[in-house]
């Protein structure tokens, strides 16, 4: 359950790894300076010295390039969460660590590098497939932790599993979704503790 | 406990009710068209036909005018919440109705009239005193409901009262704060139900 998935979208056109990497790196640089929303594929082409048509051989749209950058961030975040929870001794502790790690990873990645924030915002607004996959992965992790805690007798078993998992996901969502997290940064660390406590009380058998 | 408080800030200068009302009405109209952020007190003065100095006799700043508009909205919202919970038969039901009414009042007031949204956003970003008073009032309502439920034996009494109240406030916050609610409108109604369920499970004795 702790293996972080890759959210990299399907490739298009010639699978020339180096060219793709070159485009993504240049785009990351360009987006950081001028913002994702304001940058066009033409701007990127000019900056890299490629033709627009050549870029379109590798990526179907600007969003497809943004998706690769976004996917990289999300994979890093899920790896951090996976590592944080891997050796938790109980399901309760796993849930606590998961919440804390999500808040930390989100704050670190998106807000220590404010310049990439508008890619995150665009991705969450869409929502882009990478973000949907990320949210599904978090829901899946929550479900696995609940099942583990039910099996070990730590958690109650009366409430339907999906109802419990969805409700817990809703509690975590404001600290996972960057559009929401930006308005909660100053209280996020305390919220992770307080809300974990509330969620664990709700799971008591 | 169900009396909605008034969040109207202190008046300044001559307490000529009609002139104040006239300024607030003109400002509401002006903000609706041009946005709160983009409007200056000079713009307002020109639009109403008053001198800037005359407006400053009644309001110390643009924010002071915005506060009156914002306070009016918040008072309406708290009245709606107060009415929704007044005849609830149990503390559990009162909590459920409070959550539902907060979501409904927030959605109705701020999002059916999108034009006034940027006052709400400015007020929540500040946060303005009216918003802080509103949040305190909600925390107070939550505390009263918990005490009621503890007294009647519906809720557990082990967790410190303020810890329980703060955690429940954090669960509700994304649906109360307009900066957050704007990103949760499509799932707000279902969230109110699901999260009330989770919170009530966490309160079980």
TrEMBL record, chains A, B:
Q: Which domain of life is it from?
A: Bacteria
Instruction: Extract the InterPro entries matched here.
Output: Homeodomain-like_sf, HTH-type_TetR-like_transc_reg, HTH_TetR, Tet_transcr_reg_TetR-rel_C_sf, TetR_C_27
UniProt DNA-binding residue ranges: 40-59
Ordered alphabetically, the record's keywords are: DNA-binding, Transcription, Transcription regulation
Among SUPFAM superfamilies, the record links this protein to: Homeodomain-like, Tetracyclin repressor-like, C-terminal domain
Which ranges carry the HTH tetR-type domain?
17-77
Q: Which Pfam family name is an example for this entry?
A: TetR_N
Question: So which residues are the signal peptide here?
Answer: none
Name the chain's protein: TetR/AcrR family transcriptional regulator
């Amino acid at each position: 359950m702790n293996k972080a998935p890759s959210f990299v979208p399907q490739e298009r056109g010639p699978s020339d790894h180096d060219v793709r990497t070159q485009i993504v790196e240049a785009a990351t640089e360009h987006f950081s300076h001028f913002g994702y929303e304001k940058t066009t594929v033409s701007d990127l082409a000019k900056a890299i010295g490629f033709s627009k048509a050549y870029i379109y051989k590798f990526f179907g749209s600007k969003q497809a390039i943004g998706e690769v950058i976004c996917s990289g961030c999300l994979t890093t975040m899920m790896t951090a969460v996976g590592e944080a929870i891997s050796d938790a001794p109980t399901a309760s502790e796993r849930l606590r660590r998961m919440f804390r790690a999500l808040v930390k990873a989100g704050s670190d990645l998106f807000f220590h590098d404010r310049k990439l924030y508008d890619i995150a915002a665009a991705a969450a607004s869409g929502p882009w497939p990478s973000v949907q996959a990320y949210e599904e992965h978090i829901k899946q992790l929550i479900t696995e932790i609940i099942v583990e805690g039910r099996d070990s007798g730590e958690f109650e078993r009366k409430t339907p599993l999906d109802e419990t998992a969805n409700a817990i996901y809703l509690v975590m969502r404001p600290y996972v979704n960057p559009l929401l997290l930006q308005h909660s940064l100053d209280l996020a660390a305390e919220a992770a503790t307080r809300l974990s406590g509330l969620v664990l009380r709700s799971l008591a058998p």
